């Protein structure tokens, strides 16, 4: 089994896709006006409209209502990314901070309030963990 994607349900697909394209530097692949994907070498961030929810099960997902999941992106230089996003991201939860487990992390919220973590491994053990 492979974990391949995370899907965010939103009331404004274009707004969220534009945000993630700018934040990550990854261009979206649009399937329809209600669904787009930002594909990286290891996983995909899918963004779907509230109009897609009834296709699965009516009421099974609600936009802008995440209080438990953090989307995480491995980046080469989290401090440089922070400088690049400063003035674009409206809600930084923290500036780059070195965590006890060896990652330097930047936590912020996307326009729907979802938590996003950009991180760079900085200790030898963290670097080794992500060098595979």
How does this structure look, described?
It is a single chain. With 132 residues, this protein is of the alpha/beta class. It folds into 2 domains: 61 residues, 2,3-Dihydroxybiphenyl 1,2-Dioxygenase, domain 1 (Roll); 67 residues, 2,3-Dihydroxybiphenyl 1,2-Dioxygenase, domain 1 (Roll). Helix content is 23%, strand content 37%. It has 4 helices and 8 strands, in the order βαβββαβαβββα. β2 and β3 form a beta hairpin. The longest helix has 12 residues. The mean pLDDT is 97.
Helix-strand layout with pairing:
Blueprint (H helix, E strand, L loop, with lengths): L4 E6 L2 H12 L3 E5 L2 E5 L4 E6 L3 H4 L13 E5 L3 H8 L5 E8 L4 E7 L5 E7 L2 H6 L3
Parallel strand pairs: 1-4, 5-8
Antiparallel strand pairs: 2-3, 3-4, 6-7, 7-8
Q: Spell the H/E element sequence.
A: EHEEEHEHEEEH
The count of strands amounts to: 8
Count of discrete alpha- or pi-helical segments spanning 4 or more residues: 4
- Overall number of domains: 2
CATH architecture of the largest domain: Roll
The chain-level structural class is alpha/beta
Question: Could you report the average pLDDT, rounded to the nearest whole number?
Answer: 97
Strand percentage lies at 35-45%
What is the CA-CA span between the terminal residues? 18 Å
The geometry reads as: globular
What about the largest sheet?
Answer: 4 strands, mixed
**Which fold name is given in CATH as the topology of the largest domain?**
2,3-Dihydroxybiphenyl 1,2-Dioxygenase, domain 1
What's the CATH C level of the largest domain?
A: Alpha Beta
Query: What's the helical proportion of residues?
Result: 10-25%
Reading side by side through the largest sheet, how are the strands ordered? 1-4-3-2
Return Rg in Å: 15 Å
CATH homologous superfamily designation of the largest domain: 2,3-Dihydroxybiphenyl 1,2-Dioxygenase, domain 1
**Low confidence ranges:** none
């Amino acid at each position: 089994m492979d974990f391949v994607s995370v899907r965010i349900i939103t009331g404004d697909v274009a707004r969220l896709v534009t945000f993630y394209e700018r934040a990550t530097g990854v261009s979206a692949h649009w399937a329809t006006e209600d669904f787009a994907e930002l594909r990286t070498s290891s996983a995909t961030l899918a963004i779907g409209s509230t109009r897609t929810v009834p296709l699965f099960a009516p009421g099974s997902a609600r936009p802008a209502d995440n209080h438990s999941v953090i989307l995480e992106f491995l980046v080469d230089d989290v401090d440089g990314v922070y400088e690049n996003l400063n003035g674009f991201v409206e809600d930084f939860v923290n500036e780059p901070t070195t965590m006890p487990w060896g990652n330097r992390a930047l936590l912020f919220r996307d326009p729907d309030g979802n938590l996003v973590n950009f991180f760079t491994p900085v200790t030898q053990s963290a670097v080794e963990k992500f060098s595979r």
